[in-house]
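User: Before I run my own analysis I want an independent prediction to cross-check against. Here's the chain; please return only the structure tokens and, at the end, one sentence I can use as a sanity check.
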Amino acid sequence: MQTFNIYDEIKELCEQLEASNFTKWSQTLKDAVISGSTGTEIFVEVKVTLDQLLREESSLSPNLKARAEAILAFIHKNLKHFRFNS
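Assistant: Structure tokens:
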């Protein structure tokens, strides 16, 4: 049974974004991971970034969109007791 490793998923998404010429989003996502001092801070920053990405980039491939949505689903599942306003 393979488990979902959110950090590996984020890294893979960054690489795919970079390869698809979404360099700004890739760097913003990397910055979100690096700048957080706790797992919760990282998850919140990643959530905000991915929400913006999905809202603003209508030309995302289905694969990129699905990976971003899977990461968001993991965050929502694991931080469901927090309220997010973004």
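Sanity check: The chain has one domain: 6-78.
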